[in-house]
Amino acid sequence: MKKQSKFIIAGTATAASLLLVGCTTLPSSAELDKLTMDVAKASFRDQGIAKTDRLVLDDANRECMVADASGKPIDEKVAKSIEAANMATIKWPAGGYYLGDWKQGERIAQNGRGLTWSDSAGSSNGGNCYNCHQISKEEISYGTLGPSLYNYGKIRGVKNPYAPESAAVVQYTWGKIYNSRAYNACSQMPRAGHKGILNEEQMKHIMALLLDPNSPVNK
Ligand code: HEC
User: Fold this and answer.
1) What is the DSSP string of 51-98?
2) Ligand 1 surroundings by CB, under 6 angstroms
3) For the chain, domain boundaries
4) Among 90, 93, 101, 163, which residue has the fewest nearby CB atoms (within 10 Å)?
5) Which pLDDT tens digit goes with each residue over 192-210?
């Protein structure tokens, strides 16, 4: 409640200053961005592991937001450099072992818990995959922001994930889950590895869910 009233006060102050500015000249887009950021900053506070540094936009956030607002796709050169920088962050699994246990992967994909102020630092998080993807047929509740991942490995012809012909698909899948921006500068998919949402072992279980021929995803 307290938080909400603070937000309204900040919002009113912003509206008033906009009105004043309006008498003379219109605020520039940079001024509006600053005002918006001030309102956001005034509306949140650090609590536990959830810090207000989550509001800080990085270069890709900024570039993608500007492109989105203009209704045009992001500049191709800028996109390529964002993707290359993100590609360089990917940590590949030791020894080339990419797959864990699909049953544990299903539990991680189902679990959307973690990273809130009441969680302790270093506690394990869920992958939240069903929030945006269909995955196994058994789960009928899922979001559709991302494409369906049902039959993910089967559609891509992965019969044996460790066969040389599967390498490209397996590596792409790991990289995409680790840092989705490496392949799509403005991806809306959380960067599970890069942001420390999932650890290497959890990522392997998720990989098995998508790529193990025995996983219900590929039946
Ligand atoms: C907030 C929504 C969101 C969440 C949560 C999410 N994804 Fe995604 N995912 C997307 C979107 C959107 C795309 C397609 C656009 C893109 O390339 O980023 C995508 C693409 C993918 C792809 C590439 C598919 C292809 O055919 O190339 C894979 C694999 C994938 N997601 C796996 C996962 C896994 C595994 C999880 C859980 C750890 C997950 N996603 C969580 C939104 C999400």
Assistant:
1) -GGGG---HHHHHHHHHHHHTSPPPHHHHHHHHHHHHTTPPPPGGG--
2) 109, 127-129, 131-133, 145-147, 149, 173, 176-177, 180, 184, 187-190, 192, 206
3) 1-43, 94-218
4) 163
5) 999 999 999 999 999 999 9
